[in-house]
Amino acid sequence: MSFWLDQALAQAELSNDCLAEHRAKSLEALRATPWPTRKTEAWRYTPLLSLDNSVIDEPNDNIDYPGSPEGVELIELFFVNGKLQSNINVAVEGLTIASLDNLNDEQQAVAKTVCQSAKPSRHLFGMVNDVLAKQGVLISVADGSDIKPIIRLVHLQNGGQSHVRHLIKLGQGAKVSVIEEYRGEQSFVATSFSEFDLGDDAVLNHYRFGLQTGAAKALAGCHFNLANRSQMHSTLVSFGSVLSRLDVDINHAGEHALATQNAIYLLADKELFDLHSNVEHMQPHGTTEENVRGIIGDSAKAVFNGRIHIHRYAQKTLAELNNRNLLLTPKAEINTKPELEIYADDVKCAHGATVAELDNKALYYLRSRGVSEQDARIMLNFGFINELIEQMPAEPLCEWLQGELRTRFGDLRTQLSVEG
Amino acid sequence: MTEEIDKALARKYEAGFVSAIESETFPPGLDEEVIRKISAMKNEPQWMLDWRLKAFAAWQEMETPDWAHLNFPVINYQDISYYSAPKSMADKPKSLDEVDPELLRTYEKLGIPLIEQQMLAGIAVDAVFDSVSVVTTFRDKLEEAGVIFCPISEAVHKYPELVKKYLGSVVPQKDNYFAALNCAVFTDGSFVYIPKGVRCPMELSTYFRINEQNTGQFERTLIVADEGSYVSYLEGCTAPQRDENQLHAAVVELVAMDNAEIKYSTVQNWYPGDEEGRGGIYNFVTKRGICHTNAKISWTQVETGSAITWKYPSCVLKGDNSVGEFYSVALTRGKQQADTGTKMIHLGKNTRSTIISKGISAGRSNNAYRGLVRMNPGADKARNFTQCDSLLIGDQCGAHTFPYVESRNPSAIVEHEATTSKVSDDQLFLCQQRGLDPEKAVSMIVNGFCKEVFKELPMEFAVEAGKLLEISLEGSVG
């Protein structure tokens, strides 16, 4: 066991709400799970020492609020240091948003079904979050409702520990877009998990911007449960920090479901980012397409593990996973492992992984046309990432995000030009 | 159709027969005393015994690795006998005439070209029957070229300096659980030394065969190719049928000095167990080679046998410009389980590696590719290409891919690709349209699927490998 975990659990208040039963179960499982070491496969490249060894900053109210994307209708909720700051007053037909600590009976019933519907118990910090998370929202979209405004959940933190859980339920044929945004660079611990339960024919556009960096210790997960003919399109953008880990689980629990996921990570300094993605095809005719790209600079380290598991019954599955990485400096490191585990024969599955530097031919092409080497490198690197950004369904979001990324590329600028 | 399939499924293991040869066998059990006895049987010098005991001490501290995608009962190492020698070896035969005729007949059944055929096939055969090398041929001819090819137990006496220098230099005693066990109890194997600048005049071959009930087979092979030399080495095996699981934990070490090249080819057809997965060999093999400057090591393997295959022939590309290659076909059927692949560790500049792996799963088997490509900080401009394809035949089997890619050099390029699918309906349709029955058609398609690997095999192996696949696939189609 870890000192950090012992302390965190000791401080956990045992409240008697609708999720109490889940908490008790997870606590039991957590106690039976050994703390990961270098030999634990899922944590092979990601040491957890910083949880035990670092001094956590005191949280304060001195928070900078980030700008909002323009040209798009938003419902914004702000969480500061793990506590909901905004009023939940939503007057959109078919949409219910409620704080987890204030649910009516009907909402409690929904929360119970969504919570742990997708999350496999094997994820350690998911269980930690199960036990400790008291804050978060329940978002419920009624059958057939198409929610126009995008729901933006912004999480800002500058110290302390926060444990947030969001539960999102889409009824049959419901449509909604959700942005999860996480920021902060001070020394803090955040476990942030969200679970999405999609009904038949539902469509979810999901964006997760994990922009925590610096000394932040961010342990997070997104879990999706797909019913018949439901669709999810997810875009993940992540920076690294002293400890940053994201587990994405997608369950094809219904037939003919479609999941697309584009993920990018941009790392600098001594940052670490670890993305574990796991897709379970449990029903026939599912489709999954995953594109993961990363640029790693300075002495940063990226870890990617992408597993696709096709169960015996999941015939006619199409699944593809692609991971491409650019290393910018001699000290940057990437560890990638795309995994296929297949038990059904009538399927088409492929995965690929590449690690390289920029294509010299492309560089040469640009320089032949009078572009300076530095600009050419930045252009090509940006293009490498931008290809995925541009596939985001909401155009105003693309522009807003490109602005955010430009700042990040500014940080990497010297390496892009000198050492790249 | 179903009837035919049933018939084919009930097909017995073709190489399954037990030769009735009297053997001297240790009672089951493993402790220091057994290791001392093995060492004494072979008249080993003290340093060799110490080396074994050190490994045994390390092994006792280690745990069975459980990371592989394999499922097998706990092995009781005290139930296994660690030494078995054909009895007629006591008075060492000087020529083939003196060899137990039963033994020779066994080889004949397996089709080993031992007598005249050897000349025709151009192969020097160091046949390992259970644990003691029985016949070593073509020694004179090889000696002319300065090539040393002999049982490792003999090398320990005749070339102690070479053995001392290289044994355990690639796979150290504590490398892993099964390697440590092998270090402690290995009974025999081959030793090859190719002197500087020599191109070995013929392909070297060892036929392994497990013959004694309840006898673990612990082979140890060491091949050293000195500067600028070349050798091609063939390893092939079949084993007789029996009910109890047998343990096989071999270690193969290759050393390719500057500008040397080693080509190591394997056809593995140990007994895979019956339809229910009973019996069958547990094959835990550690194979690794080290490449110095400009050297090349190429592993080619065709794995069709064994109940459990745990095998990762690897290359440590230490010298600049060195090359590692891995070509593999792994076929599983029945209840076979295979977890096999390779490791390419790039240390030197401009090192290159190629991995081509073809997995075929049929029946209720599980077939996993597990590989590691590591680019260390010094591996400037290193290059790797990996292609793993899996073919599924039937809806009760599994095909898995676990490739690890670790890069710490920006100028290194790693590419990994993997695909999984079943035999294409279009291709089947096309073949059947032209009058092939479904089984032939599948066999042909599978052979095509594996072609990239087969073409890397020496001629006679390629033929054998093709035939093996065909036989193995019988009854899997429908």
Quick one: overall form of chain A? globular
Order of helices and strands of chain A: HHHEEEHHEEEEEEEEEEEEEEEEHHH
Structural category of chain A is: alpha/beta
**Rounded mean pLDDT score of chain B:** 81
**What is the average per-residue confidence, as pLDDT of chain A, rounded to a whole number?**
91
Q: Tally of extended strands of chain B?
A: 24
Biggest sheet descriptor of chain B: 10 strands, mixed
Distance between the termini of chain B: 8 Å
Oligomer: heterodimer
Rg of chain A computed from alpha carbons, rounded to a whole number of angstroms: 21 Å
DSSP summary: helix tally of chain B: 13
Q: Strand sequence of the main sheet of chain A, in spatial order? A: 2-1-5-7-9-11-13-15-17-19
Model description:
The complex is a heterodimer of chains A (420) and B (478). Chain A has 8 helices and 19 strands. Chain A has helices at residues 3-11, 20-32, 49-53, 105-114, 124-132, 360-368, 373-389, 395-417, and strands spanning 74-80, 83-84, 95-99, 137-141, 150-156, 161-170, 175-183, 189-198, 203-210, 217-226, 231-239, 243-252, 258-267, 272-281, 287-296, 301-310, 318-327, 333-342, 348-356. Chain A is globular, with a radius of gyration of 21 Å. The mean pLDDT of chain A is 91. In chain B, the strands form 3 sheets. Chain B has a 10-stranded mixed β-sheet with strand order 4-3-7-9-12-14-17-20-22-24. In chain B, strands 13-15-18-21-19-16 form a 6-stranded parallel barrel. The N and C termini of chain B lie close together (8 Å). At the A-B interface, strand 18 and strand 19 of A face strand 22, strand 23 and strand 24 of B. Strand 18 (333-342) of chain A pairs antiparallel with strand 23 of chain B, so a sheet runs across the interface.
